[in-house]
Amino acid sequence: MLNLKQYKDSVVGTFVIIIAFCLVCSVLVSSAVVALGPFKEAALANDRQVSILRVSGIDAGEAVAQTYADHIEAQLIDVETGLLVPEMQDQADGYNFQSLSRKPDTSVAIPPEEDVAGIRMRAKYMPVYFVKDDEGTVTRIILPFYGAALWSTAYGYVALSTDGNTILGLTFYSHGETPGLGGEIDNPRWQALWVDKKFDNENGEYAFVIKKNAAKEGDAASYEVDSLSGATLTTRGIDNAARYWFGNAYKPFLENVRKGEIIK
């Protein structure tokens, strides 16, 4: 047995004390992570609910969780077919598509020529949130979307009318863009420019675009949003993200919505 008194002033004794200290700290940190896990999950769930309610058109007030439970129904869709996956509904609320998009068995590779959002992989299933009024009638459809901006991957939600085409709201819940420049994607005034715009034109072709000097009248005004001054690359990334998700990945789902096969 090692005699610590004998080695307390030696190099060996010093290393023994350091190793013992590190082991104790490791145990304490691990225990803290485990103990705080439920609180972290609760905070993430609350942030997600707040973001979804923000574009739902429903005032949450102080009762976020209750309002969410009363008015939001989460489902999963098979992105390829655009159909709901009712047998997985219990997994829909809080479905971590970000993590699952990095796992081979729960993701698909995006062909380079289609990957305008710069994300390379996406999850096979994505959550969709149906907003319901007090009578249980669906009033909006909320879909997550994301893509590479200038300095970060920007994650947001778009709320659509039940026609599956008209934008009713936009919010971003995670990004690392420069405050005052690309970070202005959080500005409510810019987000309001999206409201009442459409993704597809009357021929069913994707027409939405974020550009400098967007049209203010005529047919083009229904599909164009002004880019942010001084944040050309950030808004170009958001435009590409919208193009990938709403002009490609979600196309089967949105077509099913428009045909009346999702909302009965």
Give the C-alpha Rg.
Answer: 24 Å
Tally of alpha and pi helices: 7
Structural class: alpha+beta
Main β-sheet, spatial strand arrangement: 2-1-5-6-7-8
- Judging from the principal axes of the Cα atoms, what is the shape? globular
Could you explain how this protein is built, in words?
This protein is α+β, with helices and mostly antiparallel strands. The chain is 34% helix and 21% strand. The chain is built from seven helices and ten strands. The protein has helices spanning 4-7, 11-54, 64-71, 97-100, 188-192, 232-249, 251-258; strands spanning 72-78, 83-84, 107-109, 121-123, 125-132, 138-148, 153-160, 167-174, 209-211, 224-226. The strands form three sheets. Strands 2-1-5-6-7-8 form a six-stranded antiparallel β-sheet. Strands 3-4 form a two-stranded antiparallel ribbon. A two-stranded parallel ribbon has the order 9-10. Helix 2 packs across helix 3 (64-71) and helix 6 (232-249) crosses helix 7. The N and C termini lie far apart (76 Å).
Layout: helices, strands, pairs:
Layout: H1 4-7, H2 11-54, H3 64-71, E1 72-78, E2 83-84, H4 97-100, E3 107-109, E4 121-123, E5 125-132, E6 138-148, E7 153-160, E8 167-174, H5 188-192, E9 209-211, E10 224-226, H6 232-249, H7 251-258
Parallel strand pairs: 9-10
Antiparallel strand pairs: 1-2, 1-5, 3-4, 5-6, 6-7, 7-8
Which properties best describe this structure?
single chain, alpha+beta, globular, 264 residues
In brief:
The protein has 264 residues and is an alpha+beta fold. It is built from 7 helices and 10 strands.
